Trimeric intracellular cation channel family protein (Brevundimonas naejangsanensis), 633 residues
Amino acid sequence: MTELEATVEIQRVLVPVLDLCGTFAFAISGALAGVRRRLDVFGVLVLSFVASSFGGIGRDLLIGATPPAALVDWRYLAVSLAAGLITFFWWPLIERLQTPVRLLDAIGLAFFAVAGAEKALAFGLNPVMAVLLGMLTGVGGGMVRDILLAEIPGVLRSDLYAVAALLAAAIVVGGHMLHLPVVPTAIVGGLLCFTLRMIAIRRGWGLPIAR
Amino acid sequence: MTELEATVEIQRVLVPVLDLCGTFAFAISGALAGVRRRLDVFGVLVLSFVASSFGGIGRDLLIGATPPAALVDWRYLAVSLAAGLITFFWWPLIERLQTPVRLLDAIGLAFFAVAGAEKALAFGLNPVMAVLLGMLTGVGGGMVRDILLAEIPGVLRSDLYAVAALLAAAIVVGGHMLHLPVVPTAIVGGLLCFTLRMIAIRRGWGLPIAR
Amino acid sequence: MTELEATVEIQRVLVPVLDLCGTFAFAISGALAGVRRRLDVFGVLVLSFVASSFGGIGRDLLIGATPPAALVDWRYLAVSLAAGLITFFWWPLIERLQTPVRLLDAIGLAFFAVAGAEKALAFGLNPVMAVLLGMLTGVGGGMVRDILLAEIPGVLRSDLYAVAALLAAAIVVGGHMLHLPVVPTAIVGGLLCFTLRMIAIRRGWGLPIAR
């Protein structure tokens, strides 16, 4: 296997795995929020799908990529419904598994931000907007989840969630502008996002509030 | 008149009537919610239009059918503004007419779910997503209505509203996959949705909540 | 310079100035709302951008003009981030400058409503919908701002905000239907909107609420 073939192979296997991991983790966050607010099983499943897919759906609507990927590929729906049902039935267990869920969530954030920025670039958005759309892909699902629960989106007032997504998207777009190879840039961006997110959780890092 | 001509004639007359009945009923639900929350007349009319049309508008944005049908055909707007003004001026009367309003609402739900699933199929969505978009057409307007009122959408936590829409959309899509004739399938789907919805109201049927 | 050249020159200079004034004022309204609700600096900047640009983005999504203008032209983002940062650091000053901020806001409303109606006409929407989309361009950003703060949009229950935007859009569309020259019609529409808005603030004019 040549080096190129190996890279392609890694991409072919790794990308869907990370994508579905992220979808799964985000869906759990939606389902848990729904269970806590006493939604019925339909509401819990709606929140699962919204939290996992509305970042990407928002991005696709904005760049004109209709119908959105999450409505064309049934696997996103299947994974988020599975996560929603698991959470609905075994939510006390899921709540105790906080650490692995946060780990998956940080993987999802990193992956969605990277993939979102790449898709925006592929659709010809300018670099600044590609960064923002990468970030939106990462945080948009959680924002719609919170809006559906009539709450101010948590990402607007706590810790370094969006900043980590912004960092990943900025690295992807910067690499694109400098004509660096795509896969290594994406990996660096994703890993930095993941690392920053995990440190921010552990240290309780957040952004300043106006005095 | 041949049988085919009769069918076409029924479709030509009945479809717009059911569509505008549904629009009218959904607009009343939006206007009543606005009056109860002390919105001014502009706010009440916005809620009328949103409740009656944003299910279909959401579907059209997602499938890429822009501008959405509700913005091209002025009759939807006219009917929802009429419903909004009637409710604004005579809301105590409308509140007393709960039974006919619920009847119209169930007709609207059935019709919107059927028509929404058919439109999604016509735009080439896969069967699973066509079912979901049919359901969205039925319940989306009410969800946006509730979001505008800063409330958790009622459909996420009570009775069999969305499930009835899901049933209608699933029957339409199932019929399409089995190459059954369109009109009878649509009628069966719509009637079952309507019936399930009316029974759910009467019996207080709902979906389970996580323990 | 001929009269036509003068007109073109005015349009070339004045239109972007008014557009960016409006963007600036709307962004301040978003940032102030974010500061008051104790969002972090990221949340404040999101609200700045949303309040200034989501009226136009909503219009562009509905008419199928993707990617929306606010994502293609980086100046909108730059102006709204600048307004957001200024507000974040000097919000007590901005709160004391209520009168000039309201003046800018009324200019923004007038300009957005006029420009929104013109864009909707250019995309072939029918006159009634062009009026509504002009109004949406003026009031949509503020509505999404309020939804993100889990509040009922202020425009649904207070004073003559939306009606002023509706007036401007209706004059633009009326002029279009009567084949009147575009620029004078736009100026008349914008000025009437601005004047009505300022009088409504001063006199406390509002719309009726259902009894």
Notes: The mean pLDDT of chain B is 90.
